[in-house]
Design goal:
The protein is of the alpha/beta class. The protein has eleven helices and twelve strands. This is Aldo/keto reductase.
Length: 328
């Protein structure tokens, strides 16, 4: 495993982080809790020292599974990141609530589900237009003072939002989407790195499309999160990604490595990516992902990948509308 040091925070994190959205089971198809616990522990055994979760992932079930994985001495080996502020209404719409009282209440609930007395990185999941950022940051500052959280962060914020939050406290980490098929926030990630903010990127394998396992338009349930949150399976993006996979197949053959490792190798090579969050459901996936760090893409191949990405223009800055998208 490789690690990057967040100098401003005096903390070292693995270049790969455990993502746990899928293990909650909601909108991702059937999952097995026992297999999920084993997968998380395998990632940790292979040197991963950061787990990312959130209470909205299957209404807290993801945090419960993470809490089970943290038993038997595993809690001491990792940093735990979770989030707050979003929930689903009965009609499936997303509710934002970053008020002072709710932040404190959600933190206590997460601590109990995770079975820990401190959250290492507590993240504002999405901006809340109805709550002043000063109020939310006051809650985070009070939680830090009480020893219930160590670092604070934001997810899905733009630069203006991050700067507004920083007026009232420290933003230590940001979490944004980034992969070969989603480079829209690249300039923001670079800016964050320049500010000394740790960067956690999600969607590192493009909801699975960068594993190469899917080569035809899938026939999933309409509420499958891979269709409702991401736009990779919609045209014209899907056809562009298939062309990218054709090129990545050549590299996979050259290096004798799976496509997932090619994609993760490329992402974690980017200097502005502190850690790439990657979901796992079983120990086989965990081993495959962590084996990424046993080798490196050459400088020439990295440049060639960037050239292909530029030609295909997969990242066009567009995304599904808020009405279509389920929250990450």
């Amino acid at each position: 495993m490789r690690y990057k040091n967040i100098e401003k925070l005096d903390v070292e994190i693995s270049e790969l982080a455990v993502g746990t959205w899928a293990i909650g089971g909601q909108m991702w198809g059937e999952v097995n809790d026992q297999a999920s616990v084993a997968a998380i522990r395998e990632m940790i055994d292979q040197g991963v020292n950061l787990i990312d979760t959130a209470p909205i992932y299957a209404d807290g079930h993801s945090e419960v599974v993470v809490g089970q994985a943290l038993k038997d001495g595993y809690r001491e080996k990792v940093l735990v990141a979770t989030k707050f502020g979003v929930s689903y209404a009965p009609d499936g719409s997303v509710i934002n609530n970053n008020t002072y009282e709710n932040v404190l209440a959600e933190c206590q609930q997460s601590l109990e589900r995770l079975g820990t007395d401190m959250i290492d990185i507590y993240i504002i999941h999405w901006p809340d237009p109805n709550t002043p950022i000063a109020e939310t940051m006051r809650a985070l500052n009070d939680l830090k003072a009480a020893g219930k959280i160590r670092f604070s962060g934001v997810s899905n914020f733009d630069q203006a939002g991050i700067e507004a939050a920083q007026e009232f406290g420290s933003i230590d980490f940001v979490q944004l989407p980034f992969s070969m098929v989603k480079e829209d926030d690249k300039s923001l990630l670079i800016w964050c790195e320049e500010q000394g903010i740790g960067t956690m990127t999600y969607g590192s394998l493009g909801s699975g499309i960068l594993t190469g396992a899917i080569r035809q338009k899938p026939d999933w349930s309409p509420d499958d999160v891979r269709l409702t949150f991401y736009d990779y399976y919609h045209e014209p993006k899907f056809s562009k990604i298939m062309k990218l996979l054709d090129y990545l197949d050549e590299l996979a053959e050259k290096y004798q490595k799976p496509l997932a490792q090619i994609a993760l190798n490329w992402s974690t090579t980017q200097h502005f990516v502190s850690t790439a969050i990657t979901g796992v459901r079983n120990t086989e996936e965990a081993k495959e992902n962590t084996n990424t760090f046993d080798w490196n893409l050459s400088e020439d191949d990295l440049a060639n990948i960037n050239g292909v990405l530029a030609d295909l223009e997969i990242s066009d800055g567009k995304s599904l509308s808020a009405a279509e998208r389920k929250t990450k």
